[in-house]
Recover the amino acids of this structure.
C-alpha cells in the first residue's frame, strides 16, 4: 500500500533517510506554524505529542448582491461571486517518536515566525527529562501540568466534539471496530489508563474527577516481566511474541486440575485456574511466545477484573481504556475486551478511543488555551489533515515501524458556531444519522469507494475549471486528486480509520480535501448561473401553479420539488446529463421522474393530512441544491405553506458543498424572489419566513450537530413539521431518523446501484411522510 | 519430585454461579438408614486433591478397646501405624505435626487428627500404594474433594479398586473452616489477626474470636484464588476468583530464579528487595502523588524498573522472588478488598497453602487491607491454612453416617 506509506513521510518526504537527522517534510507536518500559538507537549515513554493552535488562511467564496445602481440589466447573473481570504482557527496535533524531539524542536524554532507565546504547557512522564532541551531550543518556558488532569480534560474534549470517537473492539468480526453514537451526556464514566501501572479514575463532570483506585500490574509489568522472561527488550516485540504464543502451555487450566470431567460441573475447561501454574509443576523449557502470551492474558484479565469491580462499586457501565498498553494494539484491545465481557457477564462494555494517544496533549493544550475558551466552541475533525486510526499500527503495517519518521497527525477545525442536537429528535442518544454503515456492509463499501474513485477525475477537473484565473489551479487540483485518492485507498484497507465509514464521511472527506487545496467552492459559478436561470422562470412556474385547483396544485408542488431535486451535480448520472445537455431544464427533469406509485409513496396520507388537519404551526425545511431545486422546487412549496398559515424556517448549509445552496446564497435568492412575489415578501417582513444556517458544510445532514441558533428558533416557533430534501440528507442520512413531530423526507434516487438496492430504478422517487406514534 | 507447592486452588475465574449441583449425597451402600448408630468403618480419611498439592486428613482413634483391637484387621492396623509413626512418607509426603489436633471427639470417638500433604503429581504413586495395601478390602468410603477428585476418579477405580465419593470443594472448604474454628487449636484460637499491621515495630499476631463469623469473605489462595461470600452455614456464593495465585508466584519464581521448591522461593523472597524491581510512586513523582493521595512508597508498576536493561542486570534473584511475592500478594489483597466493598463485608479470612510459612504475605495482606480501607477491613488468618477442604471431606463422610 504505497499510498499509506506516504502518509507520514509523504509529499516531499519521499526521500527521508533512515538517519536520525531526518529532513522533516514541511508540507505535511507542522503545518501553519507561522501563526502558531498556545503550544503544548505531552512526552510519554516512547512517543511525543505536540499540540498547537493556529490560524489557517484559506480562500472562501463569497456571494454579494450587485449594487442597486440600476444597471442590473447588464448582469446575466443575480449576484456576484468573489473569492476572499478567510481566517479560521485550527488545532494541530502531531505524534512522533521521542527520538525525533530534537529535530522537531529545531524545525519549529526555524518556522515559528511571529508568536507572542511565552510558555509551553508540558505533561507526560518525559516532560521532566526534556524540560531543559525544550526551553533551550524554543526559548519558551516549560509549564508542567498534571498528567491525569490533562488526560481527563482531553478525554472530555474528544467525547464531546468528535463523532465516532468511541469504539468497541470485536474479535473475529468483519468489522472489528464498532463505533458508538455520541451520547449527549458523556458523564459519568470510568477511565482506566494502563500505562506502566493502572489508574482508575471516575469522571463525574467536566472538572470533577476522582482517582478511585489502581493497580501496579500494568503495561510496565508486561514489559518488565516480559523482558526478564523472554530476553526481548521492546514492548512492541513482546506483543508480537504474545500474538504468536499458546498460553495453555504455561497456564494451568481448569481442565488440567479437573481432568476430562470438568463438563459435569458446567465449567469451561479452558478457563485459567492458575497463571504460569504449569511452569511450577512441569520441569521443562517454555517458549518465549507462550510465556509472553500467558503474561498478556494474566495482565489483561487482572486489569479487566479490577475495572469491573470498580465499575460495580461505583455503579458505572461505561469504561474507557487508554494508555500505552492499549494504544493501537489490537491484541491488547482483544484481551481486555474479553476480560471485561467475562467478568461483567456482558453487562459492561470495554470502550476505546480513536484519539486516545492525543488525550494528554489535548488536555495540556486546553489548560494553556483557557483564555481562548476552546470549550466554548464546537470543533470538527478535519479528515484531510488527520492520519486516521491505526495509521502507524505495527499490526496492520508491519513495515511502518521500521521506517524512520512515522508521524501521525490530527487536526480539528474550530467551527464558527456551536452545534447542538435538533430538539425534535425523538431520542438523541440513539440517533444515527447514516443509513448504511459501510464498515459493516462490504458490498456497499466496495461500490461507493469505486464510485468516488470514478468521480474523482471529474471533480478535480471541475475544481481546476472553477478558478480559471488562478495560475496554479491545475496543480492544486492534481494535489487534491492525489490526496483524496490516497484517502480512498486508506479507507479500502482500513474502513475504520475515521470512525464508521459512510457515504457522508466520504463526501465530507472530499470537501475537506478540496478546502485543503483552496477550492472552497468549485460549483460557485455553476450555482450562480443556475440561480440566474431559475429566477427568471420563477414567476412562470408560480402562475401555472396558481392556475391549478387545490388538489392538483398539491401534487404539482410535490412533483416540482422532486424535479428540482434532479439537479444534483453530486450525482454522476446527473452531472453527465448536465454537462452534455445544456438545455436540460425543469420540464425535462419532471419527465425523468418515476410515475406514481413511487418507490416509497405516502403522498395520499400527506394529502389527507393537509386536507383534514389544521395547518402546521411551523415547518423546518432543509434545502438541498442551488438553482432550480431551491427556486422552482422549494420556494413554490414554501409559498404554499405560508399561504395556508404555516410559518417556515428555511435551513441552508453554512458553507459550500457541491452545488448545495448555501445560507448566503439563500439570502440573495430569497431577496430576489421577494422582489417578484408579494407572499414571500410579506412573510419575510413579518418574520413568518426565516432563513437560518445549519452550521454544516456537508452534502449530508447530521441532526445531532446543528447550529445552535437553528435549534433555538425551532423551539421558539414550536416547529411541528420537518421537511428533509435530497438524496444526501434524506436517504444517505436520516432515512430512518425518528422525530417527535411530523416529517417529510423526499428525494429522487439518482444512482442506479442505490435505486436497485432499494428495489427500484434510477430516478425512483422517495416520498416518506411520517407521523410519530403517540 | 522436586517442585512442591501450596495447596491447590479451585478453578479461578469461572463463575460457577450455578453451584446447584451439590455433590455430597452420593455416598455408597455403607450408610444404611436403619443403622443410625453405625459409624463409617475405619479408617477415616478426608482427601482434597488440588492442582498442585494433595491434602489428606486422617483421624486416628485413640479410644480403641481391646475388643476392637482384636478385631482390627491387619491392613487397617498397618495403615494406622504407618501414618502415625512417620512424619514423612516417601520422598515428598509430609505430615504437618505442628498442626495435629489432639484429643478430638468426632462422632463419639476420641482421637487425633493428622494433617498430611504431598504433591498432586505423586497421586498415581499414592493410588498404587493403596492398591498394594489392599485398601479396598477395608470397605471404607474415600471422600475426596478438589479438582483431582474428578481427574483421578478413574485411576482410583481401575488401579485401586476404589470408588471415590466426590464432594464439592467449596462446600467442603466452608464446612472445614467452621468446624476447625469451633473446636479450636488444642486449646488455642484457630483464628488470628495482626494488630497494628501498618506499624512494623508494633505489629503482632493475636488470637481472634470468630464466634459470630457471618458474614465473612473467604479467600482461598491455592494455585489460583477463589473468593467466597459466606452468609451462614449453608448460604454462601462464589464471588469471583483470580488466576494470579500461589501457582503464579511459584511458577514465575521458577522461571525467574531457577528455584525448585516453594520453600526455596519463599526463602529467597525473604532476602530480596522488591523496590529494586518495582517502580514506586516516588520513583515517578519524587515523593507522594498528592493529587491522588498516593503515598510515595506505593508500587506504581510491578516489575516496572525491569524495562531498563541496566536495572535488569543489577537485580538479584532474591529481589525478583520478593517482587513476585509482593506483586501477587498485593493483587490478591486488592481484589479481596474490592469484593469486600462490593459485598459490604468487613471481615476477610485468608486461607490456602500459599500462606503456609509465608508471614511476608500475611502481614502484607493485613497491612494492605487496613491501609487502603482506612481501617474499615480486617484481614483474618487460620492456623490450618490449606487443610480445610480435606477436613470438610472427612466431615461429609461422618455426616452421612
Amino acid at each position: 500500500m504505497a499510498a499509506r506509506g506516504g502518509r507520514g513521510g509523504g509529499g516531499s518526504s519521499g526521500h527521508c533517510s533512515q538517519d536520525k537527522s531526518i529532513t522533516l517534510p514541511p508540507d505535511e507536518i507542522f503545518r501553519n506554524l507561522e501563526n502558531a500559538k498556545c503550544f503544548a507537549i505531552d512526552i510519554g515513554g516512547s512517543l511525543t505529542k505536540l499540540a498547537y493552535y493556529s490560524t489557517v488562511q484559506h480562500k472562501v467564496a463569497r456571494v454579494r448582491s450587485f449594487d442597486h445602481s440600476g444597471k442590473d440589466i447588464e448582469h446575466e447573473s443575480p449576484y456576484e461571486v468573489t473569492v476572499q481570504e478567510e481566517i479560521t482557527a485550527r488545532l494541530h496535533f502531531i505524534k512522533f517518536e521521542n527520538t525525533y524531539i530534537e529535530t522537531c524542536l529545531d524545525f519549529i524554532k526555524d518556522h515559528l515566525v511571529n508568536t507572542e507565546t511565552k510558555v509551553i504547557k508540558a505533561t507526560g512522564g518525559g516532560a521532566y527529562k526534556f524540560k531543559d532541551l525544550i526551553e533551550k531550543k524554543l526559548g519558551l518556558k516549560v509549564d508542567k501540568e498534571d498528567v491525569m488532569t490533562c488526560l481527563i480534560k482531553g478525554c472530555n474534549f474528544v467525547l464531546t466534539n468528535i463523532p465516532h470517537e468511541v469504539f468497541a473492539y470485536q474479535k473475529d468480526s468483519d468489522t472489528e471496530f464498532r463505533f458508538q453514537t455520541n451520547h449527549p451526556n458523556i458523564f459519568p464514566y470510568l477511565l482506566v489508563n494502563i500505562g506502566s501501572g493502572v489508574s482508575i479514575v471516575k469522571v463525574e463532570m467536566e472538572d470533577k474527577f476522582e482517582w478511585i483506585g489502581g493497580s501496579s500490574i500494568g503495561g510496565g509489568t508486561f514489559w518488565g516481566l516480559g523482558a526478564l522472561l523472554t530476553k526481548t527488550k521492546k514492548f512492541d516485540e513482546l506483543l508480537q511474541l504474545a500474538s504468536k504464543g499458546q498460553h495453555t502451555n504455561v497456564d494451568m487450566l481448569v481442565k488440567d486440575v479437573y481432568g476430562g470431567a470438568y463438563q459435569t460441573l458446567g465449567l469451561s475447561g479452558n478457563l485459567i485456574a492458575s497463571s504460569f501454574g504449569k511452569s511450577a509443576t512441569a520441569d521443562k523449557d517454555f517458549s518465549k511466545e507462550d510465556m509472553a502470551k500467558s503474561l498478556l492474558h494474566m495482565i489483561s484479565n487482572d486489569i479487566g477484573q479490577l475495572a469491573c469491580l470498580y465499575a460495580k462499586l461505583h455503579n458505572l457501565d461505561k469504561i474507557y481504556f487508554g494508555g500505552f498498553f492499549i494504544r493501537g494494539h489490537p491484541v491488547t484491545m482483544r484481551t481486555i475486551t474479553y476480560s471485561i465481557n467475562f467478568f461483567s457477564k456482558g453487562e459492561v462494555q470495554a470502550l476505546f478511543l480513536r484519539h486516545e494517544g492525543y488525550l494528554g496533549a489535548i488536555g495540556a493544550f486546553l489548560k494553556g488555551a483557557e483564555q481562548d475558551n476552546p470549550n466554548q466552541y464546537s470543533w470538527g475533525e478535519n479528515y484531510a489533515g488527520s492520519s486516521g486510526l491505526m495509521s502507524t499500527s505495527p499490526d496492520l503495517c508491519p513495515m511502518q515501524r521500521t521506517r524512520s519518521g512515522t508521524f501521525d497527525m490530527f487536526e480539528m477545525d474550530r467551527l464558527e458556531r456551536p452545534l447542538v442536537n435538533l430538539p425534535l429528535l425523538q431520542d438523541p442518544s440513539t440517533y444515527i444519522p447514516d443509513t448504511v454503515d459501510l464498515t459493516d456492509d462490504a458490498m456497499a463499501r466496495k461500490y461507493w469507494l469505486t464510485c468516488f474513485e470514478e468521480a474523482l477525475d471529474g471533480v478535480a477537473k471541475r475544481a481546476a475549471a472553477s478558478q480559471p484565473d488562478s495560475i496554479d489551479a491545475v496543480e492544486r487540483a492534481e494535489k487534491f486528486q492525489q490526496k483524496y485518492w490516497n484517502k480512498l485507498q486508506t479507507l479500502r484497507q482500513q474502513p475504520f480509520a475515521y470512525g464508521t465509514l459512510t457515504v457522508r464521511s466520504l463526501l465530507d472527506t472530499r470537501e475537506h480535501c478540496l478546502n485543503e487545496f483552496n477550492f472552497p467552492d468549485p460549483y460557485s459559478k455553476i450555482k450562480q448561473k443556475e440561480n440566474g436561470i431559475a429566477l427568471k422562470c420563477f414567476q412562470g412556474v408560480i402562475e401555472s401553479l396558481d392556475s391549478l385547483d387545490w388538489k392538483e396544485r398539491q401534487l404539482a408542488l410535490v412533483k416540482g420539488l422532486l424535479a428540482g431535486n434532479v439537479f444534483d451535480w453530486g450525482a454522476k448520472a446527473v452531472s453527465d446529463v448536465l454537462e452534455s445537455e445544456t438545455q436540460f431544464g425543469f420540464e425535462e427533469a419532471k419527465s425523468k421522474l418515476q410515475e406514481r406509485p413511487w418507490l416509497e409513496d405516502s403522498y395520499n396520507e400527506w394529502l389527507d393530512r393537509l386536507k383534514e388537519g389544521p395547518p402546521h404551526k411551523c415547518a423546518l425545511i432543509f434545502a438541498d441544491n442551488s438553482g432550480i431545486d431551491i427556486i422552482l422546487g422549494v420556494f413554490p412549496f414554501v409559498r404554499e405553506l405560508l399561504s395556508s398559515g404555516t410559518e417556515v424556517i428555511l435551513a441552508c448549509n453554512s458553507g459550500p458543498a457541491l452545488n448545495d445552496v448555501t445560507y448566503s446564497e439563500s439570502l440573495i435568492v430569497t431577496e430576489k424572489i421577494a422582489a417578484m412575489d408579494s407572499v414571500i415578501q410579506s412573510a419575510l417582513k413579518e418574520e413568518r419566513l426565516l432563513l437560518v444556517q445549519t452550521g454544516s458544510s456537508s452534502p449530508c445532514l447530521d441532526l445531532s450537530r446543528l447550529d445552535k441558533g437553528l435549534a433555538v428558533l425551532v423551539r421558539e416557533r414550536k416547529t411541528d413539521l420537518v421537511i428533509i430534501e435530497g438524496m444526501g440528507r434524506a436517504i444517505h442520512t436520516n432515512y430512518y431518523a425518528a422525530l417527535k413531530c411530523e416529517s417529510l423526507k423526499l428525494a429522487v434516487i439518482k444512482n442506479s446501484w442505490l435505486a436497485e438496492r432499494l428495489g427500484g430504478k434510477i430516478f425512483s422517487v422517495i416520498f416518506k411522510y411520517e407521523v410519530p406514534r403517540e | 519430585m522436586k517442585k512442591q507447592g501450596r495447596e491447590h486452588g479451585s478453578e479461578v475465574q469461572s463463575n460457577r454461579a450455578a453451584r446447584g449441583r451439590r455433590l455430597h449425597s452420593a455416598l455408597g451402600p455403607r450408610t444404611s438408614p436403619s443403622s443410625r448408630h453405625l459409624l463409617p468403618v475405619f479408617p477415616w480419611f478426608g482427601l482434597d486433591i488440588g492442582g498442585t498439592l494433595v491434602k489428606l486428613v486422617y483421624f486416628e482413634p485413640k479410644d480403641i478397646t481391646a475388643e476392637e483391637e482384636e478385631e482390627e484387621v491387619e491392613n487397617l492396623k498397618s495403615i494406622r501405624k504407618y501414618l502415625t509413626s512417620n512424619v514423612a512418607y516417601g520422598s515428598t509426603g509430609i505430615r504437618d505435626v505442628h498442626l495435629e489436633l489432639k484429643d478430638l471427639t468426632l462422632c463419639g470417638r476420641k482421637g487425633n487428627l493428622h494433617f498430611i500433604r504431598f504433591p498432586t503429581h505423586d497421586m498415581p504413586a499414592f493410588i498404587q500404594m493403596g492398591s498394594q495395601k489392599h485398601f479396598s478390602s477395608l470397605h471404607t468410603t474415600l471422600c475426596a474433594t478438589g479438582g483431582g477428585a474428578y481427574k483421578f476418579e478413574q485411576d482410583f477405580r481401575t488401579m485401586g479398586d476404589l470408588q471415590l465419593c466426590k464432594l464439592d470443594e467449596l462446600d467442603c472448604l466452608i464446612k472445614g473452616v467452621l468446624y476447625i474454628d469451633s473446636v479450636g487449636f488444642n486449646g488455642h484460637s484457630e483464628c488470628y489477626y495482626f494488630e497494628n499491621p501498618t506499624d512494623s515495630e508494633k505489629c503482632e499476631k493475636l488470637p481472634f474470636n470468630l464466634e459470630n463469623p457471618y458474614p465473612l469473605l473467604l479467600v482461598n489462595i491455592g494455585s489460583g484464588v477463589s473468593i467466597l461470600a459466606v452468609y451462614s452455614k449453608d448460604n454462601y456464593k462464589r464471588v469471583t476468583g483470580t488466576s494470579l495465585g500461589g501457582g503464579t508466584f511459584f511458577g514465575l519464581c521458577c522461571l525467574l530464579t531457577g528455584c525448585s521448591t516453594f520453600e526455596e522461593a519463599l526463602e529467597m523472597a525473604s532476602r530480596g528487595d522488591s523496590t529494586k524491581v518495582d517502580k514506586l510512586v516516588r520513583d515517578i513523582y519524587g515523593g507522594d502523588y498528592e493529587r491522588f493521595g498516593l503515598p510515595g512508597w506505593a508500587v506504581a508498576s510491578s516489575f516496572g524498573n525491569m524495562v531498563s536493561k541496566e536495572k535488569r542486570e543489577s537485580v538479584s534473584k532474591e529481589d525478583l522472588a520478593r517482587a513476585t511475592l509482593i506483586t501477587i500478594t498485593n493483587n490478591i489483597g486488592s481484589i479481596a478488598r474490592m469484593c469486600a466493598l462490593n459485598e459490604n463485608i468487613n471481615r476477610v479470612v485468608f486461607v490456602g497453602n500459599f500462606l503456609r510459612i509465608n508471614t511476608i504475605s500475611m502481614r502484607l495482606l493485613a497491612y494492605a487491607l487496613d491501609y487502603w480501607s482506612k481501617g474499615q477491613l480486617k484481614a483474618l488468618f487460620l492456623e490450618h491454612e490449606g487443610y480445610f477442604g480435606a477436613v470438610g471431606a472427612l466431615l461429609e463422610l461422618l455426616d452421612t453416617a
